[in-house]
DNA sequence: CTAGGGTTAG
């Protein structure tokens, strides 16, 4: 009905309007623009074709509508066939190419830019956007320098500065920022945000306090979120309260509340989370989809799945993130069936939905389901690949993981830091220095040398491959090592027979040690024969000064330590009196020591216990057989060594070598 | 008609 009426009006307008009816043309141009913005190319095109008189603006609006709808060929045809063009038309065509975020399109944009008869400030800004999006900072920088000084307005400078910040090129960003003659609120806010995103909260706050323009909601939001994302929840909350006092408290930006709720979820702030949720409800902000999604996410992270479900059901405008947040909530609780039900129910799914579901199956070890899901996905991005690879790795299939990684690279999907972290663990597991070094080269190429999780994985990979000095070199370059870094390095020293250095590093710890730290230092003592030190660490751990409970692994390390030193009876006594149930690793340590010191009774005891726990254990079976048939108690027998050359392990190792032998080629970012 | 900040899920 409405459409017919419009057509009627339109028809009358066409018949009554003369060639010079400019207001009608303007009206149609606006409608084409509107159709383009809502993605209705068909209506835009229909109107365009019916217009007897078209202006430059008409063509420009139409080409933009086509481009937004993905029809680049038709957009270009409109541009090429325009009877006359102005700067805006050229800019629009360049913008259309730039928005494709693709190298060849940016090149085409650049050709147009070079050929245009006249340029305005916007031409430079848009072209620079293209280079920035393509991470071509050389060209972007050159173009910035080539931009006439009077045209280097905040608009233009902010684009380049923002690009530098996004790619972690802080110094270049600062250079642009400080060189700007005029800075607006976007310039300041972007720098504050950029510092925060690069972990420099102190510098961000200095700028935040130093700004000479009025802060707006973006500025506040960046700073509050910056505090929270960098682990300073209380400072963030304080600043939020300060904002409420300083600015008009009548309305509140949903974005800032969203940021806080997300942080409540990730730092497990149950009380604050509930309070802020209540506050958002009172202010009527809960209709905001972003905010609603963050509520679902927060309760999911708390494990309060019913609250999450309630927030989901209450949300008026659900989008794909709403669904994904709740699916993720079920997955996090291990409720994979419920997650799958929701996954099947969702009418719109994106790669996140599929990946969440994949990690759900992975958490249950259902590797075939993971692969089935992965194969059913239409697009595989870096995270999807990483989820699959990680699922395969968790099942211990290193060679297969390497195979998938090579596939990923061949498909030209750029690995992220978590992919590389995973793969470095594979290289450690495979004991393949060659693979590890190639991955290290990829890390450098992709500028991920400063990523903490990558650095930690590198330390672990190198030390497991015997290259402990290389591991140490990387460890020393970590700007803010966390407990995982220390654990990797301590264990690395230990397994390479450098017990003193392990002990030394432990004494320099700036973090409370955890279970892994103690396991590392105990193993280090065992390897280096530091019996007294080992005893001391073990006692200090048990004295609960650090709040760490000794588990069976720690006892295994102690049995190993005592056993290697020949204190077999003390080791056996430790097993007898340990408060946790000894697992096969504990008995294995005793078996190894008993073998080394030719204590037949204890070896047989240990082997028997292992076989009770693991009837298929080859080492124990071999030991029992060996003792029964061959060994007559001579010292120095090397049966344990021959078994330790675990054949299955070797096979996997060589399998991995073969798969990645065509060196890994990654395109530079 | 063409241009620049923040927030949610893997």
UniProtKB/TrEMBL annotation:
MF terms in GO: RNA binding
Entries under Pfam families matching the protein: PPR (PF01535), PPR_1 (PF12854), PPR_2 (PF13041)
Annotated GO biological process: RNA modification
Start and stop residues of the PPR repeats: 55-89, 153-187, 216-246, 319-353, 381-415, 482-516
Annotated signal peptide: none
InterPro entries xrefs: PPR_At4g14850-like_plant (IPR046960), PPR_rpt (IPR002885), TPR-like_helical_dom_sf (IPR011990)
Origin: domain of life: Eukaryota
Keywords: Repeat
PANTHER family reported for this sequence: PENTATRICOPEPTIDE REPEAT-CONTAINING PROTEIN
Name of protein: Pentatricopeptide repeat-containing protein
Organism this protein belongs to: Genlisea aurea
């Amino acid at each position: 009905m409405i459409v017919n009426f419009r057509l009627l009006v339109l028809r009358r307008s066409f018949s009554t309007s003369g060639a010079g009816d400019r207001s009608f043309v303007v009206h149609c141009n606006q409608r084409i623009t509107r159709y383009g913005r809502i993605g209705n190319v068909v209506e835009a095109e229909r109107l365009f074709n019916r217009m007897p008189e078209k202006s430059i603006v008409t063509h420009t609006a139409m080409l933009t509508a086509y481009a937004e709808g993905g029809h680049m060929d038709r957009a270009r045809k409109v541009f090429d066939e325009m009877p006359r063009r102005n700067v805006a038309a050229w800019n629009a065509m360049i913008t259309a190419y730039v928005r494709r975020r693709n190298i060849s399109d940016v090149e085409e944009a650049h050709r147009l830019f070079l050929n245009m008869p006249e340029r305005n400030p916007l031409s430079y800004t848009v072209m620079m956007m293209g280079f920035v999006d393509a991470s071509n900072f050389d060209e972007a920088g050159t173009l910035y320098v080539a931009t006439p000084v009077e045209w280097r307005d905040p608009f233009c400078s902010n684009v380049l500065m923002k690009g530098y910040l996004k790619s972690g090129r802080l110094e270049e960003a600062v250079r642009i920022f400080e060189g700007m003659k005029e800075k607006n609120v976007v310039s300041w806010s972007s720098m504050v945000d950029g510092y925060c995103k690069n972990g420099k909260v102190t510098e961000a706050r200095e700028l935040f306090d130093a700004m000479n323009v009025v802060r707006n909601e973006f500025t506040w939001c960046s700073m509050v979120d910056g505090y929270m994302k960098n682990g300073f929840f209380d400072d963030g909350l304080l600043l939020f309260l300060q904002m409420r006092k300083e600015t008009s408290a009548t309305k509140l930006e949903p974005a800032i509340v969203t940021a806080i709720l997300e942080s409540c979820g990730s730092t497990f702030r149950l009380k604050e989370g509930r309070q802020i949720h209540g506050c958002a409800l009172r202010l009527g902000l809960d209709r905001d989809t972003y905010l609603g999604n963050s509520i679902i996410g927060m309760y999911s992270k708390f494990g309060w799945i019913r609250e999450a479900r309630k927030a989901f059901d209450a949300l008026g405008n659900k989008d794909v993130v709403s669904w994904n947040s709740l699916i993720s909530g079920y997955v996090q609780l291990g409720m994979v069936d419920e997650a799958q039900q929701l996954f099947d129910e969702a009418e719109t799914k994106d790669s996140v939905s599929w990946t969440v579901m994949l990690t759900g199956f992975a958490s249950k070890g259902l590797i075939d389901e993971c692969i089935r899901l992965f194969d059913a996905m239409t697009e595989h991005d870096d995270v999807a690949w990483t989820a699959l690879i990680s699922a395969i790795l968790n099942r211990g299939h290193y060679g297969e993981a390497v195979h998938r990684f090579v596939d990923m690279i061949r498909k030209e999907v750029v690995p992220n830091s978590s992919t590389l972290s995973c793969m470095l663990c594979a290289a450690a597991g495979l004991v393949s220095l060659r693979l590890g070094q190639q991955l290290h080269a990829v890390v450098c190429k992709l500028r991920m040398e400063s990523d903490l999780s990558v650095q930690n994985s590198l330390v672990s990979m190198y030390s497991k491959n015997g290259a402990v000095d290389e591991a140490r070199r990387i460890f020393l370059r970590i700007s803010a090592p966390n407990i995982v870094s220390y654990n990797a390095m301590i264990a690395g020293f230990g397994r390479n027979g450098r017990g003193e250095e392990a002990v030394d590093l432990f004494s320099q710890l700036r973090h409370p040690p955890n279970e892994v730290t103690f396991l590392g230092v105990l193993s280090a003592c065992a390897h280096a024969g530091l019996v007294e030190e080992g005893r001391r660490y073990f006692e200090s751990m048990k004295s609960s000064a650090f709040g760490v409970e000794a588990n069976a692994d720690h006892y295994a390390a102690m049995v190993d330590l005592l056993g290697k030193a020949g204190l077999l009876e003390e080791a056996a006594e430790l097993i007898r009196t340990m408060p946790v149930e000894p697992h096969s690793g504990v008995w294995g340590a005793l078996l190894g020591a008993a073998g080394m010191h030719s204590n037949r009774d204890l070896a047989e005891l240990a082997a028997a216990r292992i076989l009770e726990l693991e009837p298929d254990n080859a080492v124990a079976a071999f030991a029992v057989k060996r003792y029964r048939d061959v060994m007559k108690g001579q010292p120095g027998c090397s049966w344990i060594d021959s078994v330790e050359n675990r054949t299955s392990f070797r096979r996997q190792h060589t399998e991995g070598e073969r798969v990645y032998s065509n060196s890994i080629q990654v395109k530079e970012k």
